[in-house]
Amino acid sequence: MTVDAFRALLSNTDLFVYERSVDENDGTVAALVRRDLEKLLAVAGKQAETFAGTEEKGLKLCPLTNENARALMQLFPYTKPRSHKGHRFTMGFGDRLGLASPGHIRAIGDHDIYPVLAQQSIRELNLTHRTFADVISAAAFNVFQEGYRKGYGADGDHLKTKDEIKYALESGCTMVTLDCSEQIDQQAVTYPQDQIDALYAQLPADVRAHYEGVYLDRELPIIGCLSAPELRRIVIVFWKGIRHAIECYRYIDEIKTVAVDFELSIDETLTITTPAEHFVVGNELHDAGVTPISCAPHFSGAFEKGIEYAGDLNAFARDFVVHQQIADHFGYKLSLHSGSDKFAVFSTVGRVTKGHVHVKTAGTSWLEAMRVVAEADPDLYRKAHKFAIEHRPEAEKYYHVSTDPNTIPNIDLENDAYLPEYMNLPAARQTVHIAYGLLLDQPWFRDAFFATMAAHEEAYYAALVRHLGKHVRILTAGTDV
Predict the structure, then answer these.
(1) Is position 197 within any domain?
(2) Burial code of 55-77, b = ≥16 C-beta within 10 A, e = fewer?
(3) Residue 72, in any domain of the structure
(4) pLDDT tens digit string along 93-142?
(5) Closest C-alpha among 245, 242, 235 to residue 203
């Protein structure tokens, strides 16, 4: 089957063809197509039998299932996720809907940015009733739709256990972000020193001897000398998390079948990560032969979901410079979590890292989808908006937010033209942001929402290009990315 013959078959159907997707390999031609609002994979040629679908006018029309995604990745390897090792600037684009990757790809444009298009946490999977396989399949079909051949990654985000890691890797993830928050003693930062000393004295003797031998009575790079009380507090807070990270890294090495990028997250803590804490964590990993591709400390200031950075920008810059020095010393990138909409710090992040950084976004793509809903189906948006406000206490069980929903203007007093403006108001953004799982559980919302997004997909892509393109533009200004 040739491409010309394939196009001739398509011309005899009522299918809309995504032209960028048309591709051929080894006598098999495929394209992403749409009939009404349903997307399908059209295939013809030698390997068509590997896809599950129905025959129609010489074509096999296949639903966008995980089975067909696997066949697509086999036929066109560029649709399969892979490691981003060696790429300086990487961005995680969480897509909770399976619809956003074309907009993410277009937002990157000509910048030398490697996208991690399939990025989800276990929490997000549970709230959306998806699997890692679902997330990767959606990314593969979207990559194919755009004809994007530069590669992308798949991140099992904020994984906490070996079982979760195994699930992610068996599903095809090429990145593991390990969240050590459950092994970090987050309360210890508030303990009086005598309590820290008592807890430290109870640690195994070999643990105490190790940390004292490595860190006391010496000038350490970047951070200088650590006092004994400071070291004891760091050890009490982090030593179990460090041990867990080393064990999980070695476990990944044992079970992986492809190259896997390992990121360490220590940002899910109650207090900021001090340079001394970061150095000890990085050094312990380094001495154990573990070099993460990136590390996410808890930076100074507030990085809440869906809204701008809150905090002292000068303090953030001073803090960030030292964390970058530590990352450079150990040979990994800094990772900025909850990086959506943090425009105030992006210039500093880009300048200090020189474009050698990983930035994660997620919920902002859902919010841009809701902006499209507000424009295209005002009645649906109004109902969803009221639902989100009413159910915010339930949604707050999953996400920490600080805005006051009582400050949101009464939607009953606003006309339809104003509705998209709600996505510019911090309290409204956070309220709608954290309600995504609850809303998607409602049949009245879910069915109408996905129908609206299918009917207005180009508007959604354009919204993502505008919004995430602004992220990219500020982050890369002054770099060679």
Answers:
(1) no
(2) eeeebbbbebbbebbbbbbebbe
(3) no
(4) 999 999 999 999 999 999 999 999 999 999 999 999 999 999 999 999 99
(5) 235
Cα-based angle 394, 399, 400 (whole degrees, multiple of 5) = 110
CA distance linking residue 301 with residue 310, whole number of Å: 6
pLDDT tens-digit readout, 204-227: 999 999 999 999 999 999 999 999
- The model's pTM is 0.97
Position 269 confidence tier, pLDDT thresholds 50, 70, 90 = confident
Cβ-contact 184, 237 below 8 angstroms:
yes
Catalytic entry in 134, 164, 261, 263: 263
Same domain, 104 and 56: no
Contact between residue 357 and residue 336 where contact means Cβ atoms under 8 Å apart: yes
Say yes or no: 99 and 247 in one domain: yes
Question: Which one, of 32, 51, 10, lies nearest residue 102 by Cα?
Answer: 32
Q: Are 175 and 153 in contact (CB under 8 A)?
A: yes
Beta bridge partners of residue 407, listed in sequence order: none
Q: In terms of domains, do 172 and 49 share one?
A: no
The answer to whether the beta carbons of residues 88 and 355 sit under 8 Å apart is yes
Residues of the domain holding 33: 3-64
Nearest-angstrom CA–CA distance, 248 and 285:
12
179 is catalytic: no
Helix (H, G, I), strand (E, B) or coil at 160: coil
Strand spans (E) along 150-208: 154-159, 175-179
Which of these three, 16, 37, 64, is where a domain ends? 64
Tell me which residue of 98, 192, 88, 102 sits closest to 137, measured CA to CA. Answer: 98
Separation between Cα atoms, residue 452 and residue 185, nearest integer Å: 45
- The pair of structure tokens assigned to 459 is 């508007």
- Tell me, yes or no, if 263 is annotated catalytic: yes
Which of 95, 124, 155, 157 is flagged as catalytic?
Answer: 157
Structure tokens at 302: 């507030």
> How many Cβ atoms from other residues are within 10 Å of residue 198's Cβ?
12
CA 85 – CA 99 distance, rounded (Å): 26
CA R_g for the chain? 24
Run of H or E including 59: strand 59-62
Write out the two tokens for 441: 């559980």
User: What is the helix (H) or strand (E) element at residue 443, kind and residue range?
Assistant: helix 443-455
